[in-house]
Amino acid sequence: MVIKQLSEVVKNNPDSIELYLALGNLFRSQSDLERAIHLRQTIIARPNLDPKFKARAWYELGIDYKRAGLIDRAIYALKQSKKILGNDPNILRVLATIYAQSNDFKQAVEYYEKLGDPIAQAHYLAKWSKQKQDKEKLHLLKRALHIYIGSPEAWLELLLTNWKDTKIKEFKNNLEQALSNIEKDINFTILEGIYQEFKKSTESKLNAFIWEIHNVISTINPDILLTYYNALFLLLIGEEDKARIWLEKTLLLNTNFWPARLVLLKLDKDKQSLPENFRLHLDFFIEKASFVKKFNCRRCGLKREVIFFICPRCSSWHSIAFRKQLND
Ligand SMILES: [Zn+2]
User: Which of 102, 105, 183, 209 could disulfide-link to 128, CB 3.0 to 4.6 Å?
Assistant: First the structure.
């Protein structure tokens, strides 16, 4: 309905570029990309068009193409707009996003540098480093940490590299540095990342690495999540008694900290001789509880099972939180 009316107005005001652009955006919002694209092209083809409008039309065309999944054309159109407007932050941001989404991290890093966004720069340097090996990889991670020393994604990648290369001394030093440089409320992300990797491992070096983690965490002021992860790591190497002590510690810090209670319940259950029915019910709830999503976004509340550094829903950086209470 709105489109029909606006189309009429546009027909009666063929010189109003603003209206044309608005109509195009309306088509795009209705996912009628073909018509949106056609409209922009009509505007761009106009002779004697004010460069300001031409730049706008190229920009909107770039967004249309991006939405249509035509990445090369989107980049071309946005660069045409950039030719007229220069380093306009809106254009740079869309280009950075396109490159990031198409795994061209080198370009993404360049555009985020132009935008003066060190968090994003470090993030994509860490992603880029995953495509590289050895010296090149370490070089990219160092660059990331030089740009933003609080980048959990760069520290995590560096620690996992140390683990793969069995560089235990570097691992310990980097873990200490990481935990003192990453914002306190998100430093659990590196432990979660390491934990997921260690969980899959059957290598004998696991013991030595986990004791180093234990040593590092033991010297840090009590923090509920670091304490909790310390216990999880100890369980990976069968140190149940020690793990229990650390789990109990988390409950002293916060009696509602459900993940520790769940682990303790599992450990205790196996020690009891329970009536068959009771055990079945208990197993059912323990199983269900282990599916509770552990993380959420502090901005938009999105709940996730795996860690994220940029929220998949609201695109906030480093807004992840660990759901310490069931109603978080
Ligand atoms: Zn969010």
Answer: 105
